[in-house]
Amino acid sequence: MKKLLKTLLWILGIIIAIILIGGVFMPAKTELAVSKVIKANLYPTFRQMNCLRANANWSPWQNVKNISYSGPECGAGATMTWDDDMDGGKQVITDSKPFEMIKTTLDFGDQGKAKAAILFDKKDEGVEVTWNFSSEAAYPLGRWMSVLFIKPMIKKSYKKGLNNLDSVLNHMAEERYKIKYEEVKPQPLLSLTGSADMGNMPKVMPKLFMKLGTYMGENQIQPLGSPVTIWKSWSDSLNEMTVGFPVNEDVEGKGDIEVIQSYGGKALSIIHKGAYADQHKTWQLLMDNINSTLTHLLF
Predict the structure, then answer these.
(1) Which of 150, 169, 177, 224 fits a 20 to 30 Å CA distance from 133?
(2) Measured distance CA(5)–CA(2) in Å, rounded
(3) Could you tell me which of 65, 57, 68 has the C-alpha nearest to residue 161?
(4) Are residues 103 and 229 in the same domain?
(5) What are the tens digits of pLDDT across the range 261-296?
(6) How far is residue 271's CA from residue 43's CA, in Å, rounded to a whole number?
(7) Is residue 297 in some structural domain?
(8) Tens digits of per-residue pLDDT, 214-235?
(9) What pTM, to 2 d.p., does this model score?
(10) Residue 207: which domain range?
């Protein structure tokens, strides 16, 4: 019995020695970086990671419960807290440089704290996203846990998250460029018509909407939907447009502000999501589809 006890003590001593000595040579921090080229535009890629509410679309931690948000929706100060089987935690965006970098702090309560940084680098084939993680690893057991469990687990989660993000953004792109052939119903529009060349378009259009908005405010007219722009002519020199808001049938105009009926009938539609400067790409897709449809009908 004494021999067995002595053997067990020797084994225990060797294990303790391995833990203590091995811990000396292990990293004092848990640090890792995972990169992936996301096949999407920079703007939506950045927004999905900079707006914490959007994280639910692609987060690798789908089992997290009781999520709540505070602070701004996006950028520095945005905060997310949660509860899970490990007592929950909190994430705060501490710094955000549009389309370049996001820094966050992570508080896991008794499990410790960490920092993360997400870097964005635009490439020909998309956006390279690099997700960094850093936390202290206490000597000696924390270092062993870091090497054997924490680092592999976080690396696996980061890879899953970036793969999810790539999939979500590609699906959004497919939906974004989905062209529909549908029946649209005419509706009353409180409208105002104007014209401008391409250079003055950004100045003229807001003035038209502002004039309409002022008239609606003075007459307590509530819009029934999103603003509408109808292009009556389009060229490099002069463009004629009518802007308007859907309104009730009993609304009346005055002077150059008039109520008209919008188009009703068959229509091809496409939704543009993204920067205003990229609208021409969406328009081109729609025009290509129209030309393809006409070619099919004629030939």
Answers:
(1) 169
(2) 5
(3) 57
(4) no
(5) 998 998 888 877 766 666 766 776 777 667 655 544
(6) 17
(7) no
(8) 999 899 888 888 888 888 887 7
(9) 0.58
(10) 186-263
